[in-house]
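FlgN protein
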Amino acid sequence: MEMMGNYMDIMIRSLEKKNGILEQMLELNEEQGRMLAEPKLDEEAFRESVRKKSEMVEEIRLQDAGFEKLYERVKSELLRNRDKYREEIQEMKSLVALVMDHTVSVRNLEERNKTSLQNRFWREKQEIRQAKKTTRAAASYLKSSGLMGYVEPQFMDRKK
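Structure:
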């Protein structure tokens, strides 16, 4: 029975840790949103924040896998003795609800950031297209006016 209490504590700590990671992800997503709102994107900082988020996602996967394995181990005992573990079960339910709320918030912010990033790429692509178009027009004008390739006479000083 003592072992069961330890398992319950581990599961609760796992949910708390997952919740903490999700809170950090929320902050990171908000930071990414601010970066994307800037006129000039700091690509290095943005890449670093994406790398950090990837690490957090991996940590959440590990937490989930450990939680699932542990839950499978204690599931039958929990179902048989619900009254005995009522407080722990209630605490886990509260934590799961909090985790779900944070998960939804993270997904919403990520979707918003994804849209912002796609819009930024589209605008930059349009700017590049316009710059190429302008360059071609200028080159065409110079070519047609005979100015391209024409070098005006140069005065050379032959004195040494």
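The mean pLDDT is 89.
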